[in-house]
């Protein structure tokens, strides 16, 4: 398995694919959700700071994505830096792609001097995935009318997950 993680900016041809995956996963496949995902990903196609997105390529084809953003949830301004949109396309799950994307994003956060990184999830299985990699629950919230967990990870070099 040859896995490579590259900035989405280096593969703009994959933006429609990644946006489609994200809209299907988190937006119910609605056309408005697809437009919103395209716009969000377009903003993340930079190499000089946040927001930034990466794509995992497995044997040359897209397998997943992850982003780093600022202030993902407006109502939580105390949490500045966020891991966002970690997604692995179903045929590539349970093959280490998610771990590789997470490790990559954490290394990039450390490189950018980010001290703490946050994420949110509504899914207990996802929370367990993150807990096993050193994340902790910072607080429980209601977001978009649904319960969610905000999780936190210290990005000190010794705390950054390997992978």
Briefly summarize what is shown.
Helices cover 29% and strands 33% of the residues. The chain is of the alpha+beta class. The strands form 2 sheets. Strands 1-2-3-4 form a 4-stranded antiparallel beta sheet, with helices on both faces. The protein has a 3-stranded antiparallel beta sheet with strand order 5-7-6, with helices on one face.
Can you walk me through this structure?
This protein has 163 residues and is α+β, with helices and mostly antiparallel strands. It has a domain at 3-114: Gcn5-related N-acetyltransferase (GNAT) (Aminopeptidase, 3-Layer(aba) Sandwich), CATH 3.40.630.30. It has helices at 15-26, 31-43, 97-111, 124-131; strands at 3-7, 52-58, 61-70, 81-88, 116-121, 136-143, 146-154. The chain has a four-stranded antiparallel sheet, with helices on both faces. It has a three-stranded antiparallel sheet with strand order 5-7-6, covered by helices on one side. A hairpin with a 2-residue loop joins strand 2 (52-58) and strand 3 (61-70). Helix 1 packs across helix 2.
């Amino acid at each position: 398995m040859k896995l490579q993680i590259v900035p989405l900016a280096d593969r703009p041809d994959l933006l429609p694919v990644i946006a489609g995956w994200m809209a299907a996963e988190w937006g119910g496949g609605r056309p408005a959700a697809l437009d919103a995902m395209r716009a969000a990903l377009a903003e993340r196609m930079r190499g000089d700071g946040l927001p930034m997105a990466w794509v995992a390529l497995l044997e040359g084809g897209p397998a997943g994505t992850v982003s780093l953003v600022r202030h993902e949830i407006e109502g939580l301004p105390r949490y500045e830096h966020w891991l966002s949109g970690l997604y692995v396309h179903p045929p590539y799950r349970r093959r280490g792609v998610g771990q590789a994307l997470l490790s990559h994003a954490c290394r990039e956060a450390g490189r950018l001097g980010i001290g703490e990184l946050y994420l949110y999830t509504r899914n207990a299985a996802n929370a367990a995935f993150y807990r096993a990699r050193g994340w902790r629950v910072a607080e429980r919230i209601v977001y978009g009318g649904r319960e969610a967990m905000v999780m936190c990870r210290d990005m000190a070099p010794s705390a950054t997950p390997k992978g």
